[in-house]
């Protein structure tokens, strides 16, 4: 069986995959075919190891492991449907990722970001808009695409909740999450100062800045904004780093990890674990309990 056919079967088995996730699988399969010089599910372990090492020569261990997990998922489908007796990728160990740079954002960095927006000649003109965006990332840990997917009809002021549409999620599933009073106040302010209709974007930067083209905010717009902010404060920040920060703070607070999994919208709790960082201080607290 060709790998493209296996990918088709995988999509049939998982009909809720987002278009972006499907595209990621297609890219990895294409890369595997080119680098491993193999377009069939019947492949030796040695060939797969050679493919992994070839990737490692030009990329990081983290990327290798990411590609490995995708191929492993595909081949699990082949086993499940009876096309293979075993998954060759199960016998290949995950590489140790030596690049363990922290991805969380410190409180000091957030303070510098807020100060910059309030005092910057350009950003201060629409500080409430930018602060609302930052606080949504800061208190919910949602992804870029989920932010631009928020419509006014998704915000429930009475229940203080926010619906994250399945169309903009990574796993194709919708998610209902709570919003605190800070976020409620942000949404109230934005709504009172907007003529937007219920189906319109809550966060549309093209309406507050002429620097961004189009009539809808995009993931690219969000990325551009955070790159500029990172340069201004001299520290890398991004929605994904806020997501790691939310996960780490909630986990370290002693919250139920299943609740954290639901907040982040992860299908597998192992994915949630990957977002949680620890430090020597956390380990000391654990040790003091013994």
Q: How would you describe what is shown here?
A:
There is one protein chain. By secondary structure, the protein is mainly alpha-helical. It folds into two domains: 3-91, DNA polymerase, domain 1; 107-273, hpI Integrase, Chain A (Orthogonal Bundle), CATH 1.10.443.10. It has 13 helices and three strands, in the order αααααααβββαααααα. Strands 1-2-3 form a three-stranded antiparallel beta sheet, with no helix packed on it. Strand 1 (155-156) and strand 2 form a beta hairpin. The protein is globular and about 60 Å long. The relative contact order is 0.09.
Overview in brief:
The chain is mainly alpha-helical and 290 residues long. 54% of the residues lie in helices and 3% in strands.
CATH architecture of the largest domain: Orthogonal Bundle
Helix content: 40-55%
- Provide the spatial order of strands within the biggest beta sheet: 1-2-3
- Indicate the structural class: mainly alpha
Distance between the termini: 54 Å
Strand content: under 5%
Tally the helices: 13
Count of individual beta strands = 3
């Amino acid at each position: 069986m060709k790998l493209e056919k296996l990918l088709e079967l995988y999509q049939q088995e998982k009909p809720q995959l987002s278009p972006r996730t499907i595209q990621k699988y297609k890219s990895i399969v294409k890369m595997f075919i080119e680098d491993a010089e193999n377009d069939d599910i019947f492949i030796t372990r040695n060939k797969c190891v050679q493919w992994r090492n070839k990737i490692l020569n030009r990329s990081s261990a983290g990327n290798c492991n990411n590609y490995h997990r995708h191929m492993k998922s595909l081949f699990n489908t082949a086993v499940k449907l009876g096309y293979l007796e075993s998954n060759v990728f199960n016998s290949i160990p995950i590489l140790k990722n030596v690049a363990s740079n922290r991805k969380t954002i410190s409180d000091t960095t957030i303070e510098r970001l807020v100060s910059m927006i309030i005092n910057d000649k350009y950003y201060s003109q629409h500080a409430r808009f930018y602060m609302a965006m930052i606080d949504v990332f800061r208190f919910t840990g949602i992804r870029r695409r989920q932010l631009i997917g928020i419509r006014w009809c998704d915000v429930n002021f009475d229940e203080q909740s926010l619906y994250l549409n399945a169309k903009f999620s990574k796993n194709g599933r919708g998610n209902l999450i709570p919003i605190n009073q800070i976020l409620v106040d942000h949404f109230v302010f934005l709504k009172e100062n907007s003529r937007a209709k219920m189906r319109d974007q809550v966060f549309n930067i093209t309406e507050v800045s002429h620097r961004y083209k189009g009539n809808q905010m995009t993931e690219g717009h969000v990325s551009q904004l955070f790159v500029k902010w990172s340069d201004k404060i001299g520290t890398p920040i991004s929605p994904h780093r806020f997501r790691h920060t939310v996960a780490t703070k909630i986990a370290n607070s002693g919250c139920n990890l299943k609740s954290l999994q639901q907040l982040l919208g992860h299908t597998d709790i192992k994915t949630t674990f990957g977002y949680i960082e620890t430090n020597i201080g956390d380990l000391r607290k654990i040790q003091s309990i013994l």
